[in-house]
Amino acid sequence: MLDRKTFTLHVRTVLLAAAALGCLAASQVRAQTKEPIRIGIISEESAIAGAGISRAAQIAMDEINAAGGVDGRKVEIVQYDDHNSAADAVRAFQRAVSQDKVVGVIGTYITEIALALQPWSARTHVPFITTGAASNEISRHVHDDYDKNKYTFHEYMASPFIADSVCDSVKLWLQTKYSIKSAVVLSEDAAWTTPLDAEYLECLPKVGVTVLDHVRFSPDTSDFTPLYNKIEGEKPDVIVTGWSHIGVQPTVQWAQQQVPIPIIGISSQATSGTFWKDTNGAAAGIVTFSVASDGANLTPVTQPFVDAYIKRFGEPPPYPGFTTVDAVHVFVEAVRRAGSTDGDKLVTALEQTDYIGTVGRVQFYGRDSLFTHAMKYGPTFAPGIALQWQDGKQVPLWPKAAPNAKLKFPAFTHLQPPKG
Amino acid sequence: MLAVQILVDGFAISALYGLGAVGFTLMFGVSGVLNLSHGATMVVAAVTAWVVAGQHAGSPWLAALAGTGAGVATAFATYFLVVRPIQRSRSVPAAEKEIFVLTGTLLWGIMIQEAVAYFYTDNPKTVQPLIAGVMQIGGVRTPINELLIAVICWTVIGLLWLLVNRTKAGKVLLAASINPRALTILGFELSRVYLLVWTIYGVLAGIAGVLLATFLGASSAQASQLTASAFSIVVLGGLGSVTGSLFAAYVVGYLETLTAYLISPAYRTVPALVLVVLVVYFRPHGLLGRR
Amino acid sequence: MWIALVLLAVLLTLPLWASAYILGVLTVACYFGVFAMSWDLLFGFANEVNFGPTFLIGTGAYTAGLLNAHGVPMWVCLIAGAAGALVGGVVLAVPALRLTGPYFGLTTLVAVLLLQQFIIIFAGTTGGEIGLTMNDILSMDATTNYWYALTFMAVSGAILLTLSRSPVGLILQASGQDRIGAAALGFNVVKHKLAAFCVSAVFSGLAGAMLVFYLGTASVGTVVDVAVGVQVIIAAVLGGRRTIVGAAIGAIFLILAGELLRPLGQLSTFVVSAVALVVILFFVDGLMGLLGRRREES
Predict the structure, then answer these.
(1) For residue B92, is it within any domain?
(2) Domain range for C187
(3) In CATH, what number is assigned to the domain containing residue B119?
(4) Binary contact (B284, C103; C-beta < 8 A)
(5) Does ipTM surpass 0.90 in this model?
């Protein structure tokens, strides 16, 4: 039955299979030298914010290694592109841990992906620090099931804190200059904006702003005209935003259509240094909240990081860049403190973090807080900043304003000075 | 007021849909190819315009020209690298050529999309409108650019009509779409016809991409959505019928606009999709299709 | 047939020496293999290009997921998932089978888009773009998951292969390639195409349900997105149309290639697509053709 043709066929099959598996096997062999400390970075490389994560990590790695590493061991960054997919991110995490032997994972600015990775961090006992996702669900899970989820740390402002800082900025700053009595909340329908909007709806009335409408739109909306049209009909004083997946399009359309209502709140893409170019200048007048920026000078290390990033990559860092460079340092410090790379010991060490980073003084909330392992927010910790785009530059305005900096809204918006 | 707003908004977006759809249907009508890298071609045109305008400080008009040129270049690449080899391949059985072209253009579209994202990220790219500013139409504040887009789209479509109905080359195209074999018998070289149709396609898709960049912005992540949208419109109108595509583009454009304004932007695409399903079920050859 | 057995033998030995990561990759590849084989049955034998295999996969996955979120035990959910996909398949087949060529393709594509919109609009129940977290998962252990997936793929493959070579399968193939001739010989073409649809639906739906119980989440991006459907089609065409086994090989190849190329970062999708394009341009019979297997001539 086994004629020559069939035999050749079998041989070819086996050879092909062997070749494929050989490749797999080869990738498993690793040269064993003085083991560097490997940190996995999972990010969305095709997005500006995501690319900022891996780039900032590289800068941090070089800083640490230049200073001698950790007890003579070098820090090595292993980068993974998750292609904006939770499934890909999970596979990257699995590979990072079991194949590439990382001792910690840092990354992603997308809440959905951070939430997908959290259980895997729990299963593998490998610390995971997310440096851009905002939903407080992340830290809630740590609070609700500490023993399982304690390996996750949330090194970014949790959504309710972002909303609080926006409300604070309205009361302490914007309302001293303009009459702001009504607003419409306009947010993308995503995991991180659910707690954000809920907090907006709570804190805005407390500062005397009536919320006339609460509009949530699909993140793959590309035509915002109907939304702006509807909002204009409701005549609010400002539009308060929760934007991250989108940013360029609604901003450009806002400017082109000359919608007479200023935009404040959070527009993540507007925190990136390339936003002016991306919108061909339509960003003029947009006020957004961020963790840090060029010229913000929150701590002595903020501006040097911005300068180093610009020098190396030609443009200022996007918002997750700041938190990532801090996170790598925080993690490495924890390794030093724990004297080990064991997951549980690292968690204890991370909880003791007290680090002066680019975003402020980095500490994490403990078990007594509802948001266990979230980054502490406040004037003495990470205060956040409000900045406005003016003439091609991001101008930090609150709480620490750049010298001679003033609010400047576009001519087509109609804000009134405060009454009485 | 709302009615005028809907009328104006819908008109511009329908015109844009129409331009893209016309190219797509022409391609199918004349050469039988469903080019699934259509959206990617539009994105390349948009991004090229953005690159020329932004990084090389070119004027918006130069950028538009560059973008259209990129559309044509991509169309040619698609034809010579993917479609023609499959059409001429002797190892693909004739009955399966269609599926191979489909899969091939699909893969090619993905490659283009990824390449664009690699070099320029998937951030939406916008180009400054050719004419900035707003004007009042019936009490509705409209960006001048929107009107310009409608004008440009219809001018191009008008030129296309002239080409097809008044020039010899155009008539050959028309004939090829009806009966290619007869055309060969009469001595016309089909390959030149195909070259012409891909050029026209490239120009149409290129202009559509550039206009999209000035109006809503275009990102590599939208490539498949753009293709699916063109596909639906074209089938709704009748595969191969240019008039049908235009008509369907307006139907879909207005349906979407009405839904976005009157119901909610979240449900924008649903009625149009449902309509497509209904038409395909009850009248498979489309609203104005022939055959 | 022999190829299938050799492949199986190789896959069976993997847990002995492969890492948990590799097992994880192959687990997903096995489920993809079932997706691709189900698609191949429909395409190869009914000659219909289904642009929306993820309509069936997604319906199965979300039926299972939603039930599980309400506390229904996992095994019941799996069966319900398959049943849900079957219903979805019939609903899709009724309009679709009246059409041919690009119209059929479009209907299947639109079905996926509608399903996606439906899930996103009712995000409150379905979890929308974030996805649905499952209460149960198949197993925490990589090896156990691998065995589940491999067994499932092997059994499905055996059933699908047998069907494709059975009298029913031959009828489908004949009707696919010569509808008029087949009808003239008295075969009820539509009935058999519907049967093919149903079989494809059941396997796709069941595989989709198992996949989400493996991953622990059901999301639009993993089981409904058109991009996933595209991968399924590419896997089947790449592997070799009308061979069933080829589809499984194609799926495994695609997933493995994607992972092996992970160090390329952003470019990995580009490279995989480019390779697939080259294969279909120059090796029309796909990987199976490369291995010298002659296609079934009707």
Answers:
(1) yes
(2) 21-225
(3) 1.10.3470
(4) yes
(5) no
